[in-house]
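Lecture 7 notes: from sequence to structure.
We start with the chain below.
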Amino acid sequence: MNLPALLVFVSFAIQNADIPAKYQVKAPSRDTPIAKVDGVVVKASEVEDLLWEWRGREALADIISYKMIKAAADKAKVSVTDEDVDNAMAEQMTQLTPNVTGGKKPEDYLLDQGFTKSRLFLRVKTDLLLNQLAAVGFKADEYVKISTIIVKPDSISSSSLTAAIRKADLFYEKLTKGDSWESVLALSTTDERTLKAKGIVGWRRMDAFPKEVRDLFPTLKTGGYTKPVQTQNGIQIFKIDMWGKDATGDDREEAREIHAQSNKSQILQKIRDEVKVERLWQNSGASGS
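Predicted structure tokens for the same chain:
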């Protein structure tokens, strides 16, 4: 495939990647001066082929990824709006603080990383569509929002495990007698982040818990505590903060997002396995390609 044909292909591909015109920058014509070095003009034509050699495969890869996921999203009848993408981009920009960018403006920092606004838009839209696909099949009643108190044995010895179980039993007794969750949590740890977060873990699928915990769920109401159970983390007590079936608004959306994040890798791999991609141009670095 020669260069003019490639230019036509990529121009068509970008247009069909649904990138708003406000984020696209028209390429200069071949004869346009784009720089001067000691008065000597550098024209766009001197850069054009190098752009393909240096960045062509990256741009094509982003477009291919978008088109694969967009096709899957269309099939599943899920979508995102340009406003959704704009808002997500704006949120990402707020995270580019001077500490992150080294004092540079966010836009300049992104350009240094190879991200123009059009590329960022395409990446964000692709990710949002993947999130929507990964959220398909979400059932709120399969989730529970929990906090936890963990008692870790001091060692792997049986005596340490026995001591941890006794301590956890004591904490459970205090909770059932009316001691506050925060006061008992403070007895179990000195970690400031855990104390500040009040031991909150967040939304989890109920089938992710050990069977001993799942068996206790039907007996508990919101605000209730499980008896201490042994997990890979230690001896744990779980507090029911909210049942998924009761979640609305932001709480429900938070659970849905957890579901999506846990499924993204699997969904992406499934799409890649099912879609046939033919790269008609390969950058071998050879002249005349």
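Points to note: The longest helix spans residues 44-76. The CA atoms of residues 228 and 237 lie 5 Å apart.
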